[in-house]
């Protein structure tokens, strides 16, 4: 009996460790009022968190097990325990929040409030809005921290520039003209460059962050919306909503390498923890497209829910 008890304890310990080590991705489905939990190993939905409302932006921060999700209709940030599948806390934001990003050290969240033309900053320990920075661009969608955490780039759908925020001074200190309807933003790992999706011109634009000027423009696909840089900095990927594909661009030459066909109206993206796969929220397909980076092909479509907005992995 004692030996059986020890074996049972060992089994439980091994089981809990395997769950803890499991890599997961999360997708917000703004048309369904749900968050899909995806097992990265099998690329299948293993659970669905019923949230209601209109969940949009989402983030997981360094050193935290919580999932942070923005909700448009009530203008809130939700703090979700993904293991329990429950919303633990709600924080009031500005009107119509969109994307949420974590600072590099995991201490801060930055949320773009498109209706309020501002970025709200929330400390992850205190979970309240500490300050807001009003931006010049109308309807900000993304506010992305620089890799050193000192600055933020903000894109606004009704603008032709990205705005630069100094986070120590807590104010806007400049902007860079990129073209009409800038959307997704991503930094190179060293922070020397930033890449912006310019939807109206169907362009990917490269910005020198030292000079704060545009240094490259690359035609990709129709209605470019999402941007992500590979962890090694070698490639930047841009999702093209009008072409149902993702463009792969070499950062050294800033030339198009390939266009990868995926689901309909691709939007925001994330890499698997090992960076071997790219997950893309395909809104009109109601799914997350999985791209194998090595073969440059979509290898699976994961049905999630109506109108997935974004996806993040941990």
Quick recap of the structure?
This protein has one helix at 2-21; strands at 24-29, 34-39, 44-50, 55-59, 67-71, 76-81, 86-92, 97-102, 108-113, 118-123, 129-134, 138-145, 151-158, 161-166, 171-177, 182-187, 193-198, 203-208, 213-219, 224-229, 235-240, 245-250, 255-261, 266-271, 277-282, 287-292, 297-303, 308-313. With 314 residues, the protein is mainly beta. A hairpin with a 4-residue loop joins strand 9 (108-113) and strand 10 (118-123).
List the helices and strands and how they pair.
Elements: H1 2-21, E1 24-29, E2 34-39, E3 44-50, E4 55-59, E5 67-71, E6 76-81, E7 86-92, E8 97-102, E9 108-113, E10 118-123, E11 129-134, E12 138-145, E13 151-158, E14 161-166, E15 171-177, E16 182-187, E17 193-198, E18 203-208, E19 213-219, E20 224-229, E21 235-240, E22 245-250, E23 255-261, E24 266-271, E25 277-282, E26 287-292, E27 297-303, E28 308-313
Antiparallel strand pairs: 1-2, 1-28, 2-3, 4-5, 5-6, 6-7, 8-9, 9-10, 10-11, 12-13, 13-14, 14-15, 16-17, 17-18, 18-19, 20-21, 21-22, 22-23, 24-25, 25-26, 26-27
């Amino acid at each position: 009996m004692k030996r059986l008890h020890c074996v049972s304890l060992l089994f439980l310990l091994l089981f809990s460790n395997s769950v803890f080590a499991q890599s997961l991705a999360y997708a917000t489905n703004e048309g369904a009022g749900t968050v899909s939990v995806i097992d990265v190993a099998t690329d299948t939905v293993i659970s669905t968190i019923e949230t209601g409302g209109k969940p949009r932006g989402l983030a997981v921060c360094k050193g935290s097990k919580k999932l942070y999700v923005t909700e448009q209709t009530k203008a809130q940030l939700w703090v979700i325990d993904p293991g329990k599948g429950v919303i633990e806390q709600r924080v009031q934001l500005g009107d119509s929040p969109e994307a949420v990003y974590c600072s590099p050290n995991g201490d801060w969240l930055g949320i773009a409030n498109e209706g309020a033309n501002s970025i709200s900053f929330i400390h992850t320990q205190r979970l309240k809005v500490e300050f807001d920075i009003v931006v010049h661009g109308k309807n900000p969608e993304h506010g992305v921290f620089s890799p050193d955490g000192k600055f933020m780039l903000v894109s606004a759908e009704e603008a032709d520039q990205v705005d630069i925020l100094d986070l120590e001074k807590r104010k806007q200190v400049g902007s860079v003209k990129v073209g009409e309807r800038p959307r997704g933003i991503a930094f190179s790992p060293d922070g020397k460059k930033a890449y912006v999706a310019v939807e109206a011109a169907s362009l990917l634009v490269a910005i020198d962050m030292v000079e704060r000027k545009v240094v490259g423009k690359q035609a990709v696909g129709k209605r470019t919306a999402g941007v992500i840089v590979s962890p090694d900095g070698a490639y930047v990927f841009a999702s093209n909503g009008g072409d149902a594909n993702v463009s792969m661009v070499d950062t050294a030459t800033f030339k198009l390498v390939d266009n990868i066909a995926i689901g309909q109206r691709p939007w925001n993206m994330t890499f698997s923890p090992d960076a071997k796969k790219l997950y893309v929220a395909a809104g009109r397909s109601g799914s997350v497209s999985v791209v194998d980076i090595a073969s440059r092909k979509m290898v699976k479509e994961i049905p999630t829910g109506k109108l997935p907005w974004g996806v993040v992995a941990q």
